[in-house]
Input
Amino acid sequence: MPYPYQHDFKKPDYPRIFQWRVDTLNKLRRDPQLLATVRVHYRNNPIDLIQDWGCTFDPRNVGTQYPATLPLILFPRQVEFLQWVLDRWKAQEFGVSDKSRDMGLSWMMVSLFSALAVTHEGFTAGFGSRKEILVDRAGDPDCLFFKIRMFLSLLPVEFRGGWTMGHKDCDKSMIISIPATGAIIRGEAGDNIGRGGRASIYCRDEAAFIERPQLSDAALSQNTKCLIDISSVNGFDNPFAEKRHSWPAHRVFTFGWRDDPRKDEAWYEKQKENLNPLIDA
Output
């Protein structure tokens, strides 16, 4: 259900987007058959579920003209990334994605895993990072599971799969369960990454910064047939960099700052004025 107008990423009209969502949701609630058809569509097209209903959170907007809770409007390269992840999943392949900062890849993986969990029975996903507090810590908006809970809680109730924030049966530390599908999203950290059983797909966040990646490489080789490593750059002396520069092109996805339509050369020049030259934008 595409928006009936072009989104301006530099001058977003968020009230208009939210109003479209309200109007569309009211239409679906008046027509159960249409709602059922849309649910089937989202199962086959999870990126559309993200586009239509997903939200993100940016505390940097507090005190500005924009709200901190925003509709998640994907820019073209983000759509390409999500499709690339789905392609790796369907092909049962591993993949790596190197990125500039602030490209939203953690939110992309959170939203995709959530969309798959509420639409696919028996789906199991894993998230790993170098420290447990980066995966799940109560009330911390920077951790991955805060993002998962926010994404799910801001979906219309018709698309949450019976999930309720804080409910003991579906929302626990380091694990999210979707009642309607039996799907699970599990979190792990450090040397324990990959020890938690089997997964349909697994994501290691900031994989280039994991202290002993070989341990989780060994564990994950039997845990999942689809491992997606995402990370900003951390030199060449780590397994993430080795994979990035040796794997076939279809298994590598590069995200540069020029892929973000909110940024341009004027933005880049401003970054160079404010930051040390050794800092990667």
The chain has ten helices and ten strands. The first strand starts at residue 55 and ends at 57. The two ends are 34 Å apart (CA to CA).
